TrEMBL record:
Keywords: Glycoprotein, Glycosyltransferase, Golgi apparatus, Membrane, Signal-anchor, Transferase, Transmembrane, Transmembrane helix. This is Uncharacterized protein. GO terms for cellular component: Golgi membrane. GO terms for biological process: protein O-linked glycosylation. Its main location: Golgi.
Length: 213
């Protein structure tokens, strides 16, 4: 009974600490990220930095590198690829610079086939949202090239002879009761796709922790 009470007391204390932390984090978000932000001067700057670190403890203060069409070249982007955050507060930096809508996927080489197929589907649907592929160190160059090609190949190359040759297409679609015009009129637009290397920003994160997020 004594051991039970001792364990219960520890559990209650931990639960209370968690509840207190979540309450402070909610207040923190309300004060600094809702409407007009509080001024970051004096003691408030210290509080802001402290609780920013609690929210994203696993991030390294270095911005990820981003690659575009030429995947041999790491291009500078909005945040300055590979540069540390200037003011030392990563949360504030992301909050004030990141905005917009798009499609974000995490990837490894073993996922590349599925990602290529998914991009093909997005092209068939006429997707206009930008796509960002996040990876660490487990996406081989061959997989990167396949993903980039899936997003950038012309419609004729993407579909191949079977789906761009009128007679072959007519025979294939007639069996499904569809018209040739359905495919020929679909634009299959090239996608705005970029690869984002998260290796350094996640350098503090152990593999086991990453899987639990």
């Amino acid at each position: 009974m004594k051991d039970f009470k001792k364990s219960s007391s520890k559990t209650v204390a931990l639960e209370q600490d968690m509840a207190d932390t979540m309450t402070i984090v909610r207040i923190f978000g309300h004060c600094f990220f809702s409407g007009v932000s509080a001024s970051l001067e004096g003691e408030l700057k210290h509080v802001y930095d402290r609780y920013s670190q609690k929210i994203i403890p696993f991030f390294h203060p270095e911005i990820p590198s981003k690659s575009f069409g030429d995947i041999e070249t790491t291009s500078l982007w909005l945040f300055g690829s590979g540069n540390p955050v200037e003011n030392g507060n990563l949360l504030d930096y992301y909050y004030r610079n990141m905005q917009g809508t798009g499609i974000v996927l995490s990837a490894a080489t073993r996922h590349s086939r599925e990602i290529v197929k998914f991009i093909h589907v997005l092209r068939a649907l006429g997707n206009k949202l930008p796509i960002e592929i996040l990876y660490r160190s487990d996406l081989l160059m061959k997989a990167k090239q396949a993903i980039m090609l899936a997003a950038s190949q012309p419609k004729e190359v993407l579909l191949g002879d079977e789906l761009t040759n009128y007679n072959a297409l007519k025979r294939a679609l007639s069996r499904a009761g569809l018209s040739v015009d359905i495919i020929q009129e679909m634009p299959f637009p090239q996608q705005s796709l970029s690869l984002i290397n998260m290796q350094k920003p996640l350098s503090k994160l152990d593999k086991s922790d990453f899987l639990q997020l």
